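Supplementary material to the annual report.
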Amino acid sequence: MESRMPAWDDLEERTIIAGFHGRFIHGQNVTLVKWHVDAGSPLPPHSHHHEQVVLVSAGELEMVLEGERHLLRAGDVLVIPPNAQHEGLALTDVDVMDVFAPVREDYRDPKKGTILGSAGED
Amino acid sequence: MESRMPAWDDLEERTIIAGFHGRFIHGQNVTLVKWHVDAGSPLPPHSHHHEQVVLVSAGELEMVLEGERHLLRAGDVLVIPPNAQHEGLALTDVDVMDVFAPVREDYRDPKKGTILGSAGED
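Predicted assembly:
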């Protein structure tokens, strides 16, 4: 049985793709990531079987979900269903938390799989 | 396929147990709750089959997880494994987000089940 009490500030930051600097918490059923995203950084189009909830706490993040554009600011939430195609662009520096379920095994150990997933992942 | 872009402030607040005022987002795999907890409010001992991640953003929250006491402040995270006994006490007014996986069906419709779960739930 697993229990932990980290503080986000204690966690190592890793840069997963250019401009996306994340801190990671993996449970049994969920992965949480706190990202700082550099202004102008694009998130290329992709999909994955994990549901993803995007919670913006600072800045402006443009997300395109299955062709529909959303502009997210502090306090906004975007729920990305499993396997839904999505992409993004940080219009400013952005602080954002992602909740993934199930666990992102590729974030736990980047050597184990693709970081972004793909349209044909599953 | 479900996708939504609420802002937390747009969501209705519901008081689930005395002193715990929550706003709820339900996906397919996760439920997120933003709570404001009144100072002095106790969370009685209970357990549930959902994994729960507790993310404190303001105030001081005492949590006891399987007999071990944790004092959570802004930026602290507590991962509560499925079926682990836990209880809490808001030492001050507290702002805290809970991430549950799987979905808390009892929060979606409180008439469908117990709110707190119990030690013998599953």
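The two ends of chain A are 30 Å apart (CA to CA).
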